[in-house]
């Protein structure tokens, strides 16, 4: 059983109703909304700074290697993240799923209800969207700033 | 588990609209009617291909009060009320619809990649690093000089193709110039100029009602038959000079060269993307441009036989209500499958069908599988209706607000409000305004989809005796009701045949009807209607070949809920 240990940075907001297990490191300025679950079951989870983790998000690490999440990501409501590494400035939209050993680059968008495959390395600036949830295209890097 | 969800998703109850049936009883009159009508109920063939386009879920059906018939989307007549843009909800006046080619003239564009609506975005400058707040915010909101379009779904933006705008409004006008420069538009304008004087010389078009203007080509149609008969056909062809193309489009040889060298299929446009840009239908993704959004229409729907309005929406684009809303959901019983266990070959299962009554009067329902029978054996299944005759209590709005149990009678006990105190065999439950009945099914063949037809006849008493309304159709379906003893008033049954113009409701009352021993007691008239339904039950599985379910769920099925690892809710919110 991993020991329970939370290191929470300054100006981070962790709401009371969250469920956190295992070794978790939360960077500064990150906001965890109520009802989210950060479960570092087999290995630690290291969350960077200025992330927004909305309600009902499940971030789970089932591998012994640490799950590193970068800065300025947005995890929208209801998503499920199980990858191995998440870069910066990504947007994982509502009810999206990042599965298995997938690693996400920077500035990606996983559209609503879309999911990745189990063992992929998704390059930077990828957008996954659509009904058949595997259409990908590249954005121009830069694009829209963090205006949400 | 997912298979169970699949079976439920594939189960349905569809209603059949008989509009494609031309019934033989149209021309019969008098006493012969009785025998002919009985034969003329067509046997419903569930496997005929017409089922695919003649059956509809009840949500798509309308109901004509005058004809007392179901109307489907295929047999209603439509007239256009207004044109509006689905994005900005602007009502476009009918005159400018044609000139704008049925598209929105304002800022509404469609993403060329994913066909969703584009939003106008100001390109903001990144805020300077000093922490002074007020000046930052003002500069970032007002500096939107180069505006561009951006898609929220696929994150495409028009900067990728170099399309930017000076102002945030009137984008269509700004694009007008580039649109007019397109070769196909220029060529079309030349053609129009060339033929215009000949168009003016030919007979003027007859004035048409505006509702018909929506049909393209109708003015030329009226030309041909209204005024064209008088002009000399020779005269027309003599005047038209030969037309020379003015625009030359050169062959794009580079395109073939580029296509041959492609390595990634994502660089080619999909068929949908090409079909949305009909002017040049490019192969390369870079040449796709945002198109203006198509306008939509609000339409009035009429019954095709009596011209009664069934649906009349409000004129305003934002209003979603209807002035007149005669939908089938409010008039005929709604059938739903409430319990559908897995169907195994040669195993007898019971499904439960729920009939709910939307009317304010009690109705009496008769079920049949063929004309007369309540059990049937086909090569696919053996079906037995356990409750072929029952009533459903009326709808009462109070029940919507009433949280407590408003059981009229439960599971087998006879209800006090029912007029027929029959033993309730086969009735699963009676509550509120619905009754659930059991049907026993034994599948005999392993099919992908087991479906069977069900003939539903219902009759309700109407207490107004001013109009002898029996909807003008010759009676039918007496075979199924005559076979059962009905303790309430016998219904004046109506056939489900299209109401011809010759038949008027009044004349039918005078014709001798079958089974009409209740002609004396006519003060509460009964209205009745029958309709066929197709009940689809999903797949039939052979229990011998069923594999044991896999222990872990595949994570790629994203219709399952999120995996919740453990249920222990250790609320550890310590800082």
TrEMBL record, chain A:
Family membership: Belongs to the dynactin subunits 5/6 family. Dynactin subunit 6 subfamily.
Keywords: Cytoplasm, Cytoskeleton
Pfam families cross-referenced by the UniProt entry: Hexapep (PF00132)
Function: Part of the dynactin complex that activates the molecular motor dynein for ultra-processive transport along microtubules.
SUPFAM superfamilies recorded: Trimeric LpxA-like enzymes
Cellular location(s): Cytoplasm, Cytoskeleton
CDD domains: LbH_Dynactin_6
Primary residence: cytoplasm
Keyword Cytoplasm part of the UniProt annotation: yes
Superkingdom: Eukaryota
Record flagged with keyword Transport: no
Cellular compartments per GO CC: dynactin complex
Protein name: Dynactin subunit 6
An example Gene Ontology biological process: mitotic spindle organization
Recorded GO MF terms: dynein complex binding
UniProt-listed InterPro entries: DCTN6 (IPR027777), Hexapep (IPR001451), Trimer_LpxA-like_sf (IPR011004)
From TrEMBL, chain B:
InterPro entries per UniProt: DCTN4
Biased composition (Basic and acidic residues): 491-521
Main location: cytoplasm
Keywords: Acetylation, Coiled coil, Cytoplasm, Cytoskeleton, Isopeptide bond, Phosphoprotein, Ubl conjugation
Sequence segments annotated as region (Disordered): 122-142, 463-527, 541-575
PANTHER family reported for this sequence: DYNACTIN P62 SUBUNIT, DYNACTIN SUBUNIT 4
Family of this protein: Belongs to the dynactin subunit 4 family.
Descriptive protein name: Dynactin subunit 4
Start-end of Polar residues biased regions: 463-490, 554-575
Cellular component aspect of the GO annotation: dynactin complex; stress fiber
Subcellular location: Cytoplasm, Cytoskeleton, Microtubule organizing center, Centrosome; Cytoplasm, Cytoskeleton, Stress fiber; Cytoplasm, Myofibril
Subunit comment: Subunit of dynactin, a multiprotein complex part of a tripartite complex with dynein and a adapter, such as BICDL1, BICD2 or HOOK3. The dynactin complex is built around ACTR1A/ACTB filament and consists of an actin-related filament composed of a shoulder domain, a pointed end and a barbed end. Its length is defined by its flexible shoulder domain. The soulder is composed of 2 DCTN1 subunits, 4 DCTN2 and 2 DCTN3. The 4 DCNT2 (via N-terminus) bind the ACTR1A filament and act as molecular rulers to determine the length. The pointed end is important for binding dynein-dynactin cargo adapters.
Compositionally biased intervals (Low complexity): 132-142
């Amino acid at each position: 059983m991993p020991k329970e240990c939370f290191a929470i940075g300054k100006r981070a907001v962790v709401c009371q109703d969250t469920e956190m297990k295992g070794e978790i490191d939360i960077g500064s300025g990150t906001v965890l909304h109520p009802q989210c679950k950060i479960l570092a079951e087999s290995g630690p989870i290291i969350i960077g700074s200025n992330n927004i983790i909305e309600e009902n998000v499940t971030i789970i690490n089932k591998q012994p290697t640490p799950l590193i999440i970068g800065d300025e990501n947005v995890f929208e409501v209801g998503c499920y993240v199980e990858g191995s590494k998440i870069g910066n400035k990504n947007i994982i939209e509502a009810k999206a799923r990042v599965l298995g050993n997938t690693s996400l680059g920077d500035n990606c968008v996983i559209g609503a209800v879309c999911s990745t495959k189990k063992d992929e390395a998704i390059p930077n600036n990828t957008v996954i969207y659509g009904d058949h949830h595997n259409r990908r295209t590249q954005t121009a890097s830069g694009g829209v700033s963090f205006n949400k | 588990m997912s298979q169970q969800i699949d079976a439920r998703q594939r189960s349905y109850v569809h209603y059949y609209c008989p509009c494609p049936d031309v019934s033989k009883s149209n021309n019969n009159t008098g006493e012969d009617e009785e025998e002919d009508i009985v034969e003329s109920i067509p046997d419903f063939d569930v496997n005929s291909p017409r089922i695919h386009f003649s059956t509809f879920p009840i949500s798509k059906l309308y109901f004509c009060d005058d004809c007392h018939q179901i109307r489907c989307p295929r047999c209603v007549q439509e007239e256009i009320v207004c044109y509006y843009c689905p994005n900005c909800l602007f009502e476009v006046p009918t005159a400018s619809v044609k000139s704008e080619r049925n598209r929105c003239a304002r800022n509404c564009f469609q993403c060329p990649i994913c066909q969703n609506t584009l939003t106008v975005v100001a390109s903001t400058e990144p805020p300077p690093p000093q922490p002074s707040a007020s000046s930052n915010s003002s500069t970032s909101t007002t500096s939107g000089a180069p505006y561009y379009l951006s898609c929220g779904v696929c994150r495409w933006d028009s900067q990728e193709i170099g399309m930017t705008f000076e102002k945030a409004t009137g984008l269509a006008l700004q694009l007008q110039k580039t649109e007019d420069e397109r070769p196909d538009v220029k060529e079309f304008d030349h053609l129009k100029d060339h033929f215009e004087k000949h168009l003016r010389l030919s007979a003027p078009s007859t004035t048409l009602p505006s509702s018909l203007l929506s049909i393209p080509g109708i003015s030329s149609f009226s030309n041909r038959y209204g005024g064209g008969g008088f002009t000399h056909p020779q005269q027309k062809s003599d005047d038209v000079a030969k037309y020379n193309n003015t625009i030359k489009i050169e062959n794009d040889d580079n395109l073939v060269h580029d296509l041959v060298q492609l390595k990634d299929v994502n660089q080619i446009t999909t068929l949908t993307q090409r079909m949305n840009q009909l002017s040049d239908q490019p192969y390369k993704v870079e040449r796709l441009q945002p198109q203006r959004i198509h306008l939509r229409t609000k339409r009035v729907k009429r019954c095709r036989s009596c011209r009664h309005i069934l649906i009349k929406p409000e004129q305003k684009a934002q209003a979603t209500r209807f002035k007149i809303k005669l939908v089938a959901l409010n008039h005929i019983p709604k059938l739903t499958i409430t319990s559908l266990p897995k169907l195994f070959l040669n195993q007898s299962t019971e499904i439960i069908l729920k009939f709910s009554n939307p009317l304010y009067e009690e109705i009496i329902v008769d079920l049949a599988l063929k004309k007369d029978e309540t059990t049937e054996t086909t090569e696919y299944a053996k079906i037995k209706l356990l409750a072929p005759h029952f009533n459903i209590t009326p709808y009462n709005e109070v029940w919507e607000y009433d949280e407590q149990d408003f059981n009229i009678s439960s599971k087998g006990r006879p209800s006090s409000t029912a007029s027929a105190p029959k033993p309730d065999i086969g009735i699963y439950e009676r509550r509120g305004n619905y009754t659930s009945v059991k049907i026993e099914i034994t599948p005999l063949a392993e099919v992908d989809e087991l479906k069977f037809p069900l003939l539903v006849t219902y009759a309700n008493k109407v207490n107004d005796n001013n109009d002898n309304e029996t909807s003008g159709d010759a009676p039918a379906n007496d075979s199924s009701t005559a076979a059962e003893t009905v303790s309430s008033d016998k219904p004046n049954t109506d056939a489900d045949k299209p109401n011809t113009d010759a038949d008027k409701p009044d004349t039918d009352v005078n014709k001798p009807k079958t089974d009409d021993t209740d002609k004396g007691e006519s003060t509460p008239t009964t209205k009745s209607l029958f309709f066929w339904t197709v009940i689809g039950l999903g797949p039939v599985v052979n229990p011998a070949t069923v594999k044991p379910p896999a222990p872990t769920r595949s994570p790629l099925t994203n219709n399952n809920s999120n995996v919740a690892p453990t249920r222990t809710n250790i609320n550890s919110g310590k800082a």
